[in-house]
UniProtKB/TrEMBL annotation:
The keyword Iron applies. HAMAP family: QueE. InterPro entries: 7-CO-7-deazaguanine_synth-like, Aldolase_TIM, rSAM, rSAM_sf. This is 7-carboxy-7-deazaguanine synthase. It comes from Aquimarina amphilecti. It is an enzyme of class 4 (lyase). The gene is queE. Keywords: 4Fe-4S, Iron, Iron-sulfur, Lyase, Magnesium, Metal-binding, Queuosine biosynthesis, S-adenosyl-L-methionine. Catalyzes the complex heterocyclic radical-mediated conversion of 6-carboxy-5,6,7,8-tetrahydropterin (CPH4) to 7-carboxy-7-deazaguanine (CDG), a step common to the biosynthetic pathways of all 7-deazapurine-containing compounds. Binds 1 S-adenosyl-L-methionine per subunit. Binds 1 [4Fe-4S] cluster. The cluster is coordinated with 3 cysteines and an exchangeable S-adenosyl-L-methionine.
Amino acid sequence: MQESTEKLVNEGRMLPLMEEFYTIQGEGYHKGTAAYFVRIGGCDVGCHWCDVKESWNAALHPPTSTRVIVDNAVKYSNVVVVTGGEPLTWDMSELTKGLKSKGAKTHIETSGAYTLTGNWDWICLSPKKVKLPTKEIYSKAHELKCIVYNKSDFDFAEEQASQVSKDCVLYLQPEWSVREKMIPLIVDYVMKNPKWKVSLQTHKYLNIP
């Protein structure tokens, strides 16, 4: 990466874009609604069950002008979901500024492991044990989505829920590869602890991106 490009990436005026696509939000609070997804490359959180490991190495994804990303997104939708990878690896200020200048609503899906940058209408916090969220993001999260891979994840979910605001919507979502095993446990847990809701990766059932 040339020095000038590296500087632009560090300032958030370019971002390592992995993919962008218009689809239906499949998870959490906004499931079932149309949205434009922007997937940013780069992540060192390293979840072993990650289903987009090809996003981890930012060097594989070309630095793209943030202005171009914005222009592409608003052609399709006024709701733009920024995901990764871990998008907060990079400064999101320019991206959200550009999107909001075009009247778009800004959503982010993040582990919260890095400093929160950008101006967000909706923050989905999906914390990971291997690299915990920063303290500041808990109070700002609108949605807490905890992935359940094994039984110990229920305890982790409760630890995380104790740190978010009282208005934060709480979700338990089975990791896809073990969904048949974990869904009955999640259903039972939510029925006993109704502050939680069940989230499913409905886009996978619908066979869409």
